[in-house]
Amino acid sequence: MRSVLEGFKNFIMRGNVVELAVAIVIGAAFTALINSIVTGMFTPLIAAILGSADLSQAGMFEINGAIFMPGLVLDGLIKFLVIAAAVYFVIVLPLNKLAERRNRGVEPEVAAIATDTLLLQEIRDLLAAQQGSGPRH
């Protein structure tokens, strides 16, 4: 049982799992922030321009008892476009600029070997030492 818990701990503490968890949490918070900006500022403005109190009610019509709400689709589209633009300008564009600077030699390339690779190299060296030969490179 101890080895299972230790294995789970090692799995959770691996860099990419922790980074992924942080990315999900930050992404959720970022999405909530953008949604509140869109809901509080953009959609009321567009609804007022379209002559409706609420964007979800804009352009609403009924056919044979079925209610169609194109304003809801417009609201979802606006939220998607604003979130996509914010992600592009806040995350993607700066990272692309950083990569471009690294390719030009302005920023030094990060020379780090992944912990998985180091662990595999240590295992290889230990196996080679057990077989009586030195480590291979």
Shape: elongated
Q: What ranges have pLDDT less than 50 throughout 5 or more consecutive residues?
A: none
How many strands, what sense, and barrel or not for the largest sheet? 2 strands, antiparallel
**Residues in β-strands, percent:** under 5%
Order of helices and strands: HHEEHH
Cα separation of the termini: 37 Å
Q: Give the helix proportion (percent range).
A: over 70%
Keywords: Cell membrane, Ion channel, Ion transport, Membrane, Transmembrane, Transmembrane helix, Transport
GO cellular component, one term: plasma membrane
Subcellular location: Cell membrane; Membrane
Function: Channel that opens in response to stretch forces in the membrane lipid bilayer. May participate in the regulation of osmotic pressure changes within the cell.
Architecture blueprint of SSEs:
Layout: H1 2-13, H2 15-49, E1 61-63, E2 66-68, H3 70-104, H4 115-130
Antiparallel strand pairs: 1-2
Membrane topology: Multi-pass membrane protein
Function: Channel that opens in response to stretch forces in the membrane lipid bilayer. May participate in the regulation of osmotic pressure changes within the cell.
Protein name: Large-conductance mechanosensitive channel
Describe the 3D structure:
The protein is mainly alpha-helical. The protein has a domain of 82 residues: Orthogonal Bundle (Non-ribosomal Peptide Synthetase Peptidyl Carrier Protein, Chain A), CATH 1.10.1200. Helix content is 72%, strand content 4%. Strands 1-2 form a two-stranded antiparallel sheet. A hairpin with a 2-residue loop joins strand 1 and strand 2. The longest helix has 35 residues. 4% of the residues are buried. It comes from Pengzhenrongella frigida. Channel that opens in response to stretch forces in the membrane lipid bilayer. May participate in the regulation of osmotic pressure changes within the cell. InterPro entries: MS_channel (IPR001185), MSC/AndL (IPR037673), MscL_channel (IPR036019).
